[in-house]
Write a structure and sequence with these properties.
Length: 145
C-alpha cells in the first residue's frame, strides 16, 4: 500500500513539473507577451492582436425578487401589527414575534429586528421613535409615534 502511495505521489509530481515547464514556456513566448504584461501589472500597455467579439446584447428580463428579498420577509409589517407596550425594546419585539410564530429566514434574529426597527423609525413617516438607550450595553428603547 505504501508503494502505491509513493508511485501516486511521484506520478503527481511529474505531472506538476510538466505543467510548470509548459507554463514557463508560454510565459516566455513572444505571442503571449501582451497577455503576460496585463497579468504582471494590471495595465494593458500593448494591446493583444486578437480581440474577442462582444457577446450580443441580451434583452433583460424583468427582475423578480425571491420571497423575502428587499421586503424584510414582511418583518416590518409583522412588527407594526404587534401589540407592544408604550415603550419597548427589541427583545420585546422578539418575544412578540415568537408568540405570533413569525418565521424568520435570516440567521441572526436580533440583527433582523434591529435593522427593521431602524427603518421603521426613520424617514418621512416613521412608525416608531427612538427614545433612549442603545449605549453602554443597554438596549434601545422605542415607542410608537
Amino acid at each position: 500500500m505504501s508503494e502505491d502511495f509513493n508511485q501516486q505521489v511521484a506520478q503527481r509530481e511529474k505531472q506538476r513539473a510538466a505543467k510548470i515547464a509548459m507554463f514557463l514556456q508560454l510565459v516566455n513566448d513572444a505571442d503571449c507577451a501582451p497577455y503576460v504584461a496585463i497579468l504582471r501589472n494590471g495595465h494593458n500597455e500593448a494591446k493583444p492582436s486578437v480581440t474577442a467579439k462582444p457577446a450580443p446584447a441580451k434583452k433583460k428580463e424583468p427582475f423578480v425578487p425571491p420571497a423575502g428579498f428587499k421586503t424584510g420577509n414582511r418583518i416590518r409589517e409583522a412588527i407594526c401589527a404587534l401589540s407592544l407596550p408604550h415603550q419597548f425594546t427589541p427583545d420585546d419585539v422578539l418575544n412578540g414575534l415568537a408568540a405570533a410564530k413569525f418565521e424568520f429566514t435570516g440567521h441572526d434574529l436580533k440583527h433582523s429586528i434591529r435593522d427593521a426597527l431602524a427603518v421603521l423609525s426613520k424617514g418621512k413617516n416613521p412608525v416608531f421613535k427612538w427614545v433612549g438607550g442603545g449605549q453602554g450595553g443597554k438596549p434601545k428603547i422605542y415607542e410608537r409615534v
